[in-house]
Structure formats: structure tokens, C-alpha cells
Amino acid sequence: MNITVIGSGYVGLVSGTCFAEMGNKVTCVDIDPIKIEKLNKGILPIYEPGLETMVLNNVQYKNLFFTTELNEALQNSEIAFIAVGTPMGSDGSADLQYVLAVAKSIGQLMQKRLIVVDKSTVPIGTADKVKATIQKELDLRNSDLEFDVVSNPEFLKEGAAIEYFMKPDRVVVGTDSDYASEKMKQLYHPFCMSRDRFISMDIRSAEMTKYAANAMLATKISFMNEIANICEKVGADANQVRIGIGSDRRIGYSFIYPGAGYGGSCFPKDVKALTKIAKENGYTAQLITAVEEVNDAQKLVIAQKIITRFGEDLTGFTFGIWGLAFKPGTDDMREAPAIYVIKELVKRGAKIKAYDPKAMHEAKTFYLKDLERIEYFESKYEILKNSDALILLTEWKEFRSPDFEEIKIQLKTPVIFDGRNQYNTFRLEEKGFEYHQIGKSK
Ligand SMILES: NC(=O)c1ccc[n+]([C@@H]2O[C@H](COP(=O)([O-])OP(=O)(O)OC[C@H]3O[C@@H](n4cnc5c(N)ncnc54)[C@H](O)[C@@H]3O)[C@@H](O)[C@H]2O)c1
């Protein structure tokens, strides 16, 4: 099939590349000329395991193209995916300006029957707005071209995006058109060969499914973090509680690690947007509001533990940070707990030495750009020299089983604050460490 993917960020680039991998001819479009120029030179704008090789191979096989020219891309396409950002607007709702700008361009430029697919996470009812926007442009052109608008929310997980896209748990497609449904089934068939994972539903339910899925996962995280905070008060160990409840098949082990709160480009904005959607429709989403409040507070729990240990004024103290990305496997720092912890410590006078295997460029260029008293190092052990404590904020594999002897030698005092509860089994206290973790009081 000939496909256009509009927006070549995390979702667009991964989806487009995976469609190309299955033999489709895919053109990825972006308005950012620098991004497209780099992609055409084989330089990827994001880090995602396995993506670079897949992009380079498909470009070589002439299945994958990059351009800023939507007009060119749409010429032969049967399906156009909208995969642009839907960032949080100033009032907390999803900002639809990019999606609707793309819809307008599609209406102005399409030359043949087209299936327009909303892959961006969009509020319920957006497909109607996209449809109306395209139709308005076609009317202005006196065109009677046919088109369908489909909702196909994306559930990929950053850090394992290729794996999730190539072997999805489910493919949700919302449409009221048999023609579009059939085409979407054909497109996704290669990804669902072992068993049918295609779930067809009405458009609004598909749009809602994405928000409900993210809100459910965020709820599990905030629930466990709340339990962890109670554990600390009552002398229980949240990690043992996690194992105790996760063994119940109805609960399961995933998304119940106590930690420094969720971040990333999706959960924070989607949870907020869902609260807003509910409010606009006359419903107060109490539980989902609380999920967000618990998370906001959780991002500062590690900073609070440091303040309790070292004092309100952190002038003269230096802290070594392992992990800046909001989760392992990505360079994405959007809403990462590290941003909040580091800013709080610096505000109180501390110096920071930071290391992350992939996200340091993002930190330096965007998220911690204007921050004073922060230095970045290429080696995780180097940051420990003369640091008063090590703070762990992302569960990268390379932090899982480090050389504790080396850590102890390098640190000024052998203190570890673990925002990800990675070292429960290492008996760090017996190794002479002062070990602070979430969900266990000292
Ligand atoms: N990142 C994720 O893990 C993830 C997972 C599922 C769903 N989503 C959703 O997918 C959508 C995209 O997210 P993302 O993380 O890929 O965003 P992103 O910011 O990484 O990428 C968006 C891209 O769209 C481009 N763009 C903006 N306007 C454009 C236009 N008019 N024409 C062409 N390109 C344009 C931008 O330049 C950018 O490259 C969002 O709605 C997000 O909520 C994201």
C-alpha cells in the first residue's frame, strides 16, 4: 500500500518505518526541514532501540521516504496518518492546532479518495472536527472527492517502540466505514499474523480507549506510590508489598513499582486532558484528578528525602545523578522526574553532576538548559567523585548491577537515594551504604 505519515516524531517515524518494514511504500512528512534533511542523510532525531537500522534498510530498499512536501506525498497515497503532537494547552486540554492544520492541508491537497487516520491522541469528537475541516476545504475547491476519517490510537511504548508496533497487543480502529475498516485490516494484517488483534469499534470509543488506557496505567502507578508513602509511615516495605499483591493474577506485576512518579510525553498530558474532557461534558473526574495530584507530589519525594537527610539549605553539597530520561530506552525527557528533583536541589544551593546514557543532549539543549551548577559526565562512575550522595532516577540496565565497591570508593559519603527501588536485593546496608528508597522508612 502507499501510505503517508504526517509528523515524523516518536509515533510517526516508528509507525512509518514499521509499515515500510512490511513492504508498504511510506512517505513520512514533517514541517521541520532540519529534521527531514537529517533523516534524508540517515541521521535520526530520536533514540529508539532498533529504529536506526530499520530506517536505513527501508530507505535503501526504497520503501521509506522523507519529505516536507505533503502535496508530493499524498499523490499516490491511499491512507494518510496524522501523527503530529497534541501538547497540553494552557488550560490542560489537548491542543488540536497541529492536527487541524494538517486536516486543512489534506483538504487543500488531496487528489484522490483517501482514508485519513488520526493516530495522534485526540479528545473524543476530534474525528468529526477533522472531517469537517477537510470537507470545508474540499467544498472551497468544489471537489467531490471521497474520504473517510478513522481513529487508530497508538499504544507503543517509548524505549520498546519497535517491539510494540511490530507485535501489538491490539490494534484499535474506530470507523463507521466498511471500506476504511477493510483497508485498515489489510494494512495491519502483517502485524497480527499469529492471532487476530484487530479491534474494530465506533470512532468515539476508539478515541476514548486511548485516554482510558493511559489513565488506567497512570492510576496503577499513582496507586502504588500512594501505598508506598503509607508503607513508609507504618513501617512496611513497599517492595515486599508489591510482590505480595502482584502475585494476584487479577492485579499483576506491571506498573506497580513504587518510584519517583510517571513522566513522559503521554501520561501527564493525557491524564490532564481526560479530566478536562470529563469537565467539559459535565462530569467531575475525581479519581483521575487524584492520580495526577499524587504524581505531582511523588516527583518530589526523593528531593524531600535528600532535604531530610542533608538539610533545607543544600549549599556546599554535590549530588551525582544517574538517569535523566523519563524511562530507560529513550532520550525523551518530557516531564521526567529528574527535571523536578534536579531543579529542587539546585534551587536549594546544591551542585549536580549528571549522567545518562542517552538523554544528556536533551537535558543540556532543552530541559535543564538554563540551570546553573549542573555538570554532565560521560562516565557514570566519574560523577561520583566528591559527591555527597548518588541519586538514581531512571532504571537503565547499566545501573542494575553496578560496581558498589567503586561507588563507595568514589562517593564522599556512601549514601544512595534510589528513585526506582533497584537495589533491594543487594543488601546495601551490609555493604556499608546508607540506602534510601521509596516506600521504606529508614
Ligand atoms: N510518544 C509516545 O510514546 C506516544 C505514544 C502514543 C501516542 N502518542 C501520541 O502521538 C502524537 C504524536 O506524539 P509524538 O511523541 O510522536 O510527538 P513528537 O512531538 O515527537 O512529533 C510530532 C511531529 O509532528 C511534526 N509536525 C507538527 N505539525 C506538523 C505539520 N503540520 N505537518 C507535518 N508535521 C508536523 C513536528 O515537527 C514533530 O516532528 C501525540 O498526540 C501523542 O500524544 C505518543
TL;DR?
The chain is of the alpha/beta class and 442 residues long.
Task: Summarize this structure as a short list of keywords or feature phrases.
14 strands, 6-stranded parallel sheet, alpha/beta, globular, binds nicotinamide-adenine-dinucleotide, 442 residues
Could you please describe the fold and organization of this structure?
- This protein has a six-stranded parallel sheet with strand order 3-2-1-4-5-6, sandwiched between helices. Strands 11-10-9-12-13-14 form a six-stranded parallel sheet, with helices on one face. It has a two-stranded parallel sheet with strand order 7-8.
- It is built from 16 helices and 14 strands.
- Strand 9, helix 14 and strand 10 (351-355) form a beta-alpha-beta unit.
- Helix 9 (203-234) crosses helix 11, helix 9 (203-234) packs across helix 12 and helix 13 (301-310) packs parallel to helix 14 (337-347).
- It is globular, with a radius of gyration of 24 Å.
- It starts with a strand and ends in a 5-residue tail after the last strand.
- It has 442 residues and is α/β, with parallel strands linked by helices.
- The structure holds nicotinamide-adenine-dinucleotide.
- Nicotinamide-adenine-dinucleotide (NAD) binds at residues 6-12, 29-32, 35, 83-86, 98, 101-102, 120-121, 154, 156, 158, 265-266.
